Amino acid sequence: MKTTLNSLSAPLKKERGCVEDQPQQATSSITRRTFEACCGWSRTTQPRSEIFRQSLTFAAGVALLLSLAGTPDICAAETATNDLPLPFPLIERFENFGLKDGLPTHKIHCVLRASDGKLWVGTYGGVLVREDGKFRKIGVEDGLSHKMVMCMVEDKRTGDMWIGTLRGLNRYSAGRITTYLQTSSGLPNNVVYGLDIMDDTLWVATAAGLGALNLKTGSWSIYDQNNTVMHEPWVYSVKGAKDRLWVGVWGGGILEYELANKIFKEHRDPDRDFHFELVHDAGPVSDVTSWIAWEDGILWQGTYSGMSRYDGSRWRTWQEKKSPLVSNFVNFIWAHGRVAWVGTDRGLSVTDGDTWANYRTNEKGEGIVEIARPGQPVETRIMSTKLPNNFILGIWVDDQEAWFATSDGLAHAVFAGQPKTAKVADAK
Predict the structure, then answer these.
(1) Is residue 310 part of a domain?
(2) What range defines the domain where residue 138 resides?
(3) Helix (H) or strand (E) holding 81
(4) CATH number of the domain where residue 284 is located
């Protein structure tokens, strides 16, 4: 079934062919027509054996329909279910930005909105800061160590922005850039994939281990295969979670670091198979961790073989074709509350683990959203706009809006039913 998003909350009964949308007729007529639709029965000349067979089918249809108290409203339960509120906002439309809007390149790697309301965008050609509706560039000519920006994190206590690149780490503070390189500091490696700040420590995921910079003293610590249970030093992601740290390792699963006890614990794929999930819901879906996210007690793992969720006691895993997950190739996950916003190579999945909304482009080139509720058929709606590209590399979400970094531009998502705010207005 396909509809437009002109009214996201409007019942979709006409497209479903619900009986209650038909002109008022005698119940017997409606019942007969419903039997014909359900059982393939009609009043035509047939051989007796065929009539007898259809009579049995007809009788079975009678029993089935009588068991559904309220025959005329046969579609009402499904419609009512599909009108129930979702555990996350639906996207009404996308507002896209590209080269014509002042972006120095089409490839966007990361995006976040700072605590002062400014939007920071990491691209293949430097950093962009959006304020007053315009993009301002910070590049190599301004002191940035490399033009390819991989990740960013804000120190909300100071307003400093930490920027990870393909060649070094940068701190942007009050208009000045300080650079940290492997050869001139304690940075484990110049290739910086992920950043997070916990209290007075900046955690840095690099291609040769995990770095920890004490923001008060300036001293560095390095964690790799020499002093942890890490089998591979290729660290893709890091995320703080109250009293512990989660570390996503390429080929090494997930490390859980208890900060108080200074103990590392390993979480590995129980079947050790990079391509197939042989043991379901028993641990990480794969040891090749592409990204991790944590919020509200829930850890999410992105891999190139699917996605995992861990609540501290139970693992759940999802793979495409076996679940609504739009693709196994997960590049990035943003956790907001208990909901994961999942960027893949074929579009966006939004889920709390049970209900899903997938945003992608169909075979006709149309933007669509596919809504999957537990125990219900997938509902497909055509959108008036779409993502600039299905290959999503970065995401930022709050209660009012979402931003997406893609391989062909930047996208701003306006939520359905959301009143205009200063943040949304600034996106135009």
Answers:
(1) yes
(2) 91-427
(3) helix 76-82
(4) 2.130.10.10
R_g of the chain, CA atoms, integer Å: 26
Whole-angstrom distance, CA of residue 333 vs CA of residue 397:
11
The verdict on residue 98 lying in a domain is yes
Q: How many angstroms separate the CA atoms of 63 and 297, rounded?
A: 48
Angle at 340 between CA 426 and CA 210, to 5 degrees: 95
> Phi and psi of 80, rounded to 5°?
-60, -40
The token pair at 326 is 């739009």
Q: Are residues 135 and 284 in the same domain?
A: yes
Number of H helices and number of E strands within the chain? 5, 30
Q: Which tokens go with 145?
A: 């160590």
Measuring CA to CA, which residue among 197, 227, 225, 226 is closest to residue 212?
197
226 shares a domain with 147? yes
57, 169: one domain? no
Question: Considering the entire predicted model, what is its pTM?
Answer: 0.80
> Is 104 found in the same domain as 70?
no
At 169, which helix (H) or strand (E)? strand 168-173
**What contacts 344, CB < 8 A, 6 or more positions away?**
325, 326, 327, 328, 329, 330, 331, 390, 392
Q: Please, what is the end-to-end C-alpha distance for the chain in angstroms?
A: 32
**Helices 48-67 and 27-39 sit at what angle, rounded to 10 degrees?**
110
- The answer to whether residue 5 is domain-embedded is no
Q: Is 17 left (phi over 0), alpha (psi -120 to 50) or beta?
A: left
Looking at the structure, do residues 166 and 298 belong to the same domain, yes or no?
yes
Per-residue confidence of the chain (428 residues) as pLDDT tens digits? 444 443 333 333 333 233 333 333 333 333 332 333 333 333 333 443 343 334 334 344 434 333 434 433 434 444 445 667 899 999 999 999 999 999 999 999 999 999 999 999 999 999 999 988 899 999 999 999 999 999 999 999 999 999 999 999 999 999 999 999 999 999 999 999 999 999 999 999 999 999 999 999 999 999 999 999 998 899 999 999 999 999 999 999 999 999 999 999 999 999 766 555 567 788 899 999 999 999 999 999 999 999 999 999 999 999 999 999 999 999 999 999 999 999 999 999 999 999 999 999 999 999 999 999 999 999 999 999 999 999 999 999 999 999 999 999 999 999 998 655 434 334 44
Residue with tokens 């899903």: 356
Can you read off the two tokens belonging to residue 190? Answer: 């110049």
392 inside domain: yes
